[in-house]
TrEMBL record:
Residues 1-29 form the signal peptide. This is Lipoprotein. Residues 64-314 form the SMP-30/Gluconolactonase/LRE-like region domain. One of its GO terms (molecular function) is hydrolase activity. It holds the Pfam family SGL. SUPFAM superfamilies: Calcium-dependent phosphotriesterase.
Length: 339
């Protein structure tokens, strides 16, 4: 997705950042061909609504981080929204309406999650290497974590919480240099202590706990693979391994979510589609937008309705930023919010 990548670099120069983990390297036409051999069945996603158009100031729009709040509304971030435009939106998926929750003059927010500990909304600011939090209504912005971790400032992409409210971050350190220096960082729920759980990763992007909270699924953007990282009771780790090699072609692995059966929903940047795997790496399905949909280049992320199977996928491109819906293979749980 060279056009999108070139626009992304220009955008991040404006935002004061080096690069953007959500950016792939090539475009893929919507619905091109059938799912490849061994890719399971094809699920067609249907357009729900358009949330954004391309911003004149940044030259693009990129939706990410869908997460359901306790009020039943879907929170979505627009990574490249300029100052004054909605950077965090709240969507009534039944009424097909959206309202601005938060904006500022500096952040490039690539993910959103509600904490099980304090109920606040946590955002990763990729441009400034920070984690910030908001009250659910978008007020009371606080800096949760900033500064260096083991001598290097993070490039935080996606986030996930454990049951106790400790935060786990996919740190895309090294992406702009093309080096496998990415990390998984654990931040205690009070924001005071940060620990590197894994390093040497190839631009880690998506991150989600498995159903039992025994380990983390991590998608590595520049290697098109999903790794599995067991997480010990005291934040120690053992036995990280490559779990799935994603046949993405020119598309790259973006955010990741997990349903109640443990299935993985892997977003693709550079193609408006998602790949669905079971926990053992078998390709179960490919979620596609209809072939007639034009100007859409990425399906970065997904959220599945808690206790239901209706899934909401963030899809973006020159045509704007959209929500598409499909029926997931199992019900939504906390891990079904794509970080």
């Amino acid at each position: 997705m060279r056009r999108l990548r070139n626009r992304s670099l220009a955008v991040l120069a404006t935002l004061g950042a080096l690069t953007l983990t959500g950016c792939g390297t090539g475009a893929h036409a919507p619905g091109d061909g059938a799912a490849s051999a061994g890719s399971g069945r094809t699920i067609t996603a249907h357009r729900l609504m358009r949330l954004t158009t391309v911003h004149q100031e940044t030259g693009m729009t990129l939706l990410e981080g869908p997460v359901f709040g306790e009020d039943g509304r879907l929170v979505v971030v627009d990574v490249t929204a300029p100052a004054g435009k909605p950077k965090v939106m709240s969507v009534d998926v039944r009424g097909k309406t959206a309202r601005k929750v938060f904006t500022d003059s500096r952040g490039a927010y690539t993910s959103a999650q509600f904490s099980p500990y304090d109920g606040r909304l946590y955002l990763s600011d990729f441009a400034h290497g920070e984690i910030v939090s908001l009250a659910p209504d978008g007020s009371d912005r606080r800096t949760f974590f900033t500064g260096e971790v083991d001598g290097a400032r993070m490039r935080p992409d996606d986030v996930a919480f454990d049951r106790d409210g400790n935060l786990y971050v996919s740190d895309s350190l090294g992406l702009s240099e093309g080096e496998a220096r990415g990390r998984v960082v654990r931040i205690d729920r009070d924001g005071r202590k940060a620990t590197v759980l894994a390093d040497g990763l190839a631009a880690p992007n998506g991150i989600s706990f498995d159903v039992d909270h025994r380990g983390l699924w991590i998608s590595e953007l520049t290697e098109n693979r999903i790794s599995y990282l067991p997480v010990g009771e005291r934040a120690g780790t053992t036995g990280r391994h490559t779990a799935v090699r994603v046949d993405g072609g020119i598309a790259q692995t973006d955010s990741i979510a997990v349903d109640a059966d443990g299935n993985l929903y892997q977003g693709l940047h550079g193609r408006p589609a998602m790949a669905v795997y079971d926990r053992y790496g078998e390709r179960l399905a490919t979620v596609e937008v209809p072939a007639r949909a034009e100007g859409l280049e990425s399906a970065t992320n997904v959220a599945i309705t808690p206790g239901g199977t209706k899934a909401y996928m963030t899809v973006s491109g020159p045509a704007g930023g959209y929500l598409y819906t499909f029926d997931a293979l199992a019900e939504g749980v906390r891990q079904s919010n794509g970080g």
